[in-house]
TrEMBL record:
The keyword 4Fe-4S does not apply. Keywords: Methyltransferase, Transferase. The keyword Methyltransferase applies. SUPFAM superfamilies: S-adenosyl-L-methionine-dependent methyltransferases. This is Methyltransferase domain-containing protein. Residues 63-158 form the Methyltransferase domain. It comes from Haloarcula salinisoli. Gene3D superfamilies: Vaccinia Virus protein VP39. GO terms for biological process: methylation. GO terms for molecular function: methyltransferase activity.
Amino acid sequence: MIDPFRQWAFDRRNHTHSQCVYDWWSRHDRVYAAFVTAFLLGRTGEFRDRTVAALSLDPGDTILDVGCGPGPNFERLADAIGPTGTIVGVDASPGMVKRAKERGEQLDCEVEVLRADARRLPLANDRFDRVCATLSLSAMGDVEAVVAGISDVLRPGGRIAVLDARSFQTAPLRWLNPLVEGVSAYITNWYPDAPIARSVEDMFTEVSMKAFHGGTVYVVTGKKRD
């Protein structure tokens, strides 16, 4: 299922700023959870629920969680796919992968977690029924390549759901963007202008987007063409 050479090549690369940042967060998971909760104004669980619901999961589905972090989506996904389903989590941070594996061990369904570059997923084409990404694509430098790779591993007719955030869209909060973006880029490797919605629109059909908090937080979904 996983190409050993591609995994080895990825592991041989030096840590990037992003990996160092998220390795630190993985060692301070409670602080990480508190940060995300504050960033989403206390609605983290609600937004994750919306994202999972948008996937229209069925028992036995195989789902990929891109940029899975410490696995905060795993329980929700496992409840939807049941013991016959499979979750595969992918993250670039060794620390996050370790945390996610520990979390996956507590679930009834099959859980596989690997360290990989989301732009070059070492996974078989057309393997997954569904793909989700929550607050992760905007931390990746080449969103177009990531979404294209997601399309490759998603089976025809499969669905993608992305939860992410962008800068404040309206005044007066928009005036805070330089400060928020500067701090967030350092502590979370955030790219607020990442063309996530446009990339999904380019690669998928039946694309829809729901925005919250004045357009700052959004969930975008799509379907791979048959």
